[in-house]
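In response to the reviewer comment on reproducibility (Comment 2.3), we provide here a single inverse folding case reported in full, input and output, so that an independent group could reproduce the run without further information from us. The C-alpha cells appear first.
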C-alpha cells in the first residue's frame, strides 16, 4: 500500500522509529486489537482540514492467504499517537520535481 491523496500535489517517503519505552504490539493490545486474530504490520494516519484519522494495518490470521485489513481507532489528543515514535520523518516533494528526490541536502538554514 502507498500513501494517496486526491491530487497528490506532493509525494514522498516516511521513516519511523518506535519509542523504546513501548512496543507496537503492546500499543495494539492497548487499543483492543485481537492479537490472536490480527498480526499488526503497519499503521496509517491521515489529516485533512484539521481532522485526524488513525489506523493499524494487520494481517488477518483467520484467512488462508495473506489478507490485510485496516483497523481504525480513536487517538485523541493527537500527541498521544505521535508520542509512540522516538522519531518520525515525512519527506515530500512537489510531484513535478521528481529529479530532486534522490539529491542530498547540501546545507540547512534556519529562517528567523
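Designed residues, in position order:
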Amino acid at each position: 500500500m502507498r500513501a494517496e491523496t486526491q491530487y497528490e500535489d506532493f509525494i514522498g517517503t516516511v521513516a519511523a522509529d518506535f519509542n523504546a519505552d513501548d512496543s507496537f504490539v503492546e500499543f495494539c493490545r492497548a487499543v483492543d486489537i485481537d492479537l490472536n486474530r490480527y498480526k499488526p504490520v503497519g499503521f496509517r494516519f491521515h489529516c485533512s482540514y484539521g481532522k485526524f484519522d488513525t489506523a493499524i494495518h494487520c494481517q488477518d490470521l483467520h484467512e488462508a492467504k495473506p489478507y490485510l485489513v485496516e483497523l481504525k481507532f480513536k487517538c485523541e489528543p493527537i500527541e498521544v499517537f505521535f508520542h509512540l515514535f522516538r522519531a518520525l520523518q515525512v519527506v515530500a516533494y512537489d510531484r513535478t520535481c521528481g529529479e530532486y528526490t534522490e539529491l542530498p541536502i547540501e546545507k540547512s538554514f534556519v529562517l528567523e
